[in-house]
């Protein structure tokens, strides 16, 4: 597990040395999955606070993460569901923790321009924004959406916006936008029926 974490990167012995030699009262780590967090928390012990950004994925079940989550002085979660998941998986409910959330300020973006750029016309659509990657659930999402459309024909589309790692199933109602700029993203967000994040 440690070898996998090291090879996954980022691997920076100088960063780990700096973390270990820091005299800061608290050292904050984000997210749980990478070597600076795994090896860094070991070096600062009770001064570590972790924003894990944890979700149900295969790597979180590697035995090394049990000690990482338990060693942190505090845990800061983005959602209550994340806190429940981590506490159930690692029995960390007695540790200091809070749900802080994660927000963003709306940016400019025109829904009509976004619709025109993607050829959506006036169709209603569901929107996913993020890496189009089976590890993020977009493969399952696209297969379920295609199956839904086979039994519920109509104008509803699914738009996948983000860098494409794994191409989803081909379907006339699935629009793979790929990377979009901020204006396009916010235009799409303003006019979606619902935001979908598997």
Which strand order do you get reading across the main beta sheet? 1-2-3-4
The N- and C-terminal alpha carbons lie at a distance of: 26 Å
Provide mean pLDDT, rounded: 94
How many beta-strand segments?
8
The portion of residues assigned to helices is: 25-40%
What is the SS-derived class? alpha/beta
Large-scale geometry: elongated
Stretches where pLDDT is under 50 for at least 5 consecutive residues are none
Largest sheet: 4 strands, parallel
Q: Tally the helices: what do you get?
A: 8
Strand content: 15-25%
What is the helix/strand order? HHEHEHEHEHEHEEHE
C-alpha-based Rg, rounded: 20 Å
Structure description:
Helix 2 (13-21) packs parallel to helix 3 (35-44), helix 3 (35-44) packs across helix 4 (64-71) and helix 6 crosses helix 8. The protein has helices at 2-8, 13-21, 35-44, 64-71, 80-90, 111-118, 138-151, 182-191, and strands spanning 27-29, 48-50, 74-77, 96-99, 125-129, 157-161, 174-178, 194-195. Helix 3 links the parallel strand 1 (27-29) and strand 2 (48-50). With 198 residues, it is α/β, with parallel strands linked by helices. The strands form two sheets. The chain has a four-stranded parallel β-sheet.
What tags apply to this protein structure?
198 residues; alpha/beta; four-stranded parallel beta sheet; 39% helix; 16% strand; elongated
Topology, pairings included?
Blueprint: H1 2-8, H2 13-21, E1 27-29, H3 35-44, E2 48-50, H4 64-71, E3 74-77, H5 80-90, E4 96-99, H6 111-118, E5 125-129, H7 138-151, E6 157-161, E7 174-178, H8 182-191, E8 194-195
Parallel strand pairs: 1-2, 2-3, 3-4, 5-6, 5-8, 6-7
